[in-house]
């Protein structure tokens, strides 16, 4: 009997150890590594606290256990969900049906068992977000700035008081001098002298009429020049940066996230006009990016502000975030156009982007004395460094003279596939006309012909 009890106790201990080991298999992962793996592989379709394309994954291990599955099932699902569903696994096919039959990416060969354990540990015990150092730095800077501002205000007050005292003293001195002048004018000697002087403007003009006519003529010339100069700048809006109905930072999208200009403005390469992207283009990314978590924050704004603009986008396209579906209720966005050529001007984006891309970049960079002003994308030659702008502004004058100057200084790239084919019969003529090895600029191939831009 004693022997049986002894073995019974040992059996209970063994079973307890086995159960505790099986329950903590996933807990052997590293939540910090899991967080990195989750961001790299999962965030396009999943979040911890809400449904995106796929279900919320916070506490997924416990959820699966409640449904009668174990961690080993999760390993199989994450590794190759297609194989698991094809095997006839009822629970796998149920999950597939519940999430709109959207197939999950296969990670077999990409994620090891340890990687999956790390991800599962992150979904179970996500590490607390450390307070951003930049926020602490900003607070310290704000405190210092407040102290400096208070000191500056105090100094300005003292200067203002001193200036008022000085002005009061000056006024008192002027009053005394005026009193003295009045007394002098009342003397008989000065009255006799005043009788011989010019005392009216008409008399003064009559005496010095040639000087007056000269001054009037100069004023007329200055006025004419002013009117001419004003007329020459009609329609020139360099620096124009209007507010838009949805705040869109090119610095975040093109600068911080390195999104290619032509991903959104595809018409710049294949058409005359570089169109304003439709909101469907925005939703290609923001269907799964519903809140801003980037490191860059513009002074005076916060992450909540950027997230609110994403929500505004959802409202305009009619996207129901909770159901991950479109409602059909849309509201057009009235963007304010910034760059707009007059109707009498013809400009083709694709001609410059395809045929003139490298030539324009080389010509622009050759003019820059400071290396930091050089460009790597042809768009920046005309539109400025868009990837540094929070609010887009017109970077150049876009006058006729500005375009002509570019045509006179930009060397044609004859090795470009387009130019090589299009001007193949013109090469010899240009060499004879300008000499072997001469610099052939755009004006030599019709870049200054009126009909090229005006029709």
TrEMBL record:
Keywords recorded for this protein, A-Z: Electron transport, Heme, Iron, Membrane, Metal-binding, Signal, Transmembrane, Transmembrane helix, Transport
Identify this protein by name.
Answer: Cytochrome c553
Q: Name one GO molecular function term.
A: iron ion binding
Q: Which residues form a coiled coil?
A: none
Give start-end of the signal peptide: 1-27
- Tell me the ranges covered by the Cytochrome c domain, including all copies: 29-127
Q: Which domain of life is it from?
A: Bacteria
Membrane-traversing stretches: 159-176, 215-236
What the entry lists under InterPro entries is as follows: Cyt_c-like_dom (IPR009056), Cyt_c-like_dom_sf (IPR036909), Cyt_C_IC (IPR008168), Multihaem_cyt_sf (IPR036280)
| Source organism (scientific name) | Epilithonimonas zeae
């Amino acid at each position: 009997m004693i022997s049986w009890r002894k073995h019974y106790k040992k059996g209970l201990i063994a079973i307890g150890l086995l159960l505790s080991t099986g329950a903590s298999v996933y807990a052997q992962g590293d939540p910090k590594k899991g967080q990195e793996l989750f961001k790299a592989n999962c965030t396009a379709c999943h979040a911890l606290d809400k449904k995106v394309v796929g279900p919320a994954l916070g506490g997924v291990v416990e959820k699966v256990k409640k449904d009668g599955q174990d961690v080993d099932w999760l390993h199989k699902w994450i590794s190759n969900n297609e194989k698991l569903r094809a095997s006839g696994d009822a629970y796998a096919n149920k999950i597939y049906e519940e999430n709109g039959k959207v197939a999950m990416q296969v990670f077999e060969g990409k994620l090891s068992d340890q990687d999956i354990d790390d991800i599962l540990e992150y979904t179970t015990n996500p590490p607390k977000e450390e307070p951003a150092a930049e926020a602490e730095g900003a607070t310290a800077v704000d405190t210092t700035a407040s102290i400096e501002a208070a000191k500056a205000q105090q100094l300005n007050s003292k200067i203002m008081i001193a200036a008022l005292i000085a002005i009061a003293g000056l006024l008192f001195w002027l009053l005394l001098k005026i009193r003295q002048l009045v007394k002098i004018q009342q003397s008989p000697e000065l009255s006799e002298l005043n009788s011989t002087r010019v005392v009216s403007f008409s008399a003064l003009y009559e005496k010095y009429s040639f000087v007056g006519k000269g001054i009037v003529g100069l004023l007329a010339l200055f006025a004419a020049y002013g009117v001419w100069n004003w007329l020459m700048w009609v329609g020139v809006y360099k620096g124009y940066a209007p507010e838009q109905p949805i705040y869109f930072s090119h610095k975040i999208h093109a600068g911080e996230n390195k999104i290619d200009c032509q991903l959104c403005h595809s018409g710049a390469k294949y058409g005359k006009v570089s169109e304003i992207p439709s909101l469907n283009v925005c939703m290609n990314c923001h269907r799964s990016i519903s809140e801003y978590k980037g490191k860059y924050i513009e002074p005076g704004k916060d992450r909540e502000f950027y997230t609110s603009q994403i929500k505004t986008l959802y409202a305009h396209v009619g996207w129901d975030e909770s159901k991950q579906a479109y409602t059909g209720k849309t509201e057009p966005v009235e963007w304010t156009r910034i760059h707009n050529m007059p109707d009498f001007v013809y400009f083709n984006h694709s001609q410059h982007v395809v045929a003139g891309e490298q030539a324009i970049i080389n010509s622009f960079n050759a003019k820059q004395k400071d290396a930091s002003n050089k460009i790597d994308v042809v768009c920046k030659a005309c539109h400025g460094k868009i990837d540094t702008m929070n609010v887009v502004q017109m970077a150049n004058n876009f006058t006729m003279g500005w375009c002509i100057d570019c045509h006179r200084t930009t060397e044609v790239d004859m090795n470009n596939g387009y130019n090589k084919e299009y001007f193949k019969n013109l090469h010899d003529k240009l060499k004879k006309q300008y000499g072997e090895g001469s610099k052939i600029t755009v004006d030599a191939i019709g870049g200054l012909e009126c009909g090229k831009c005006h029709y």
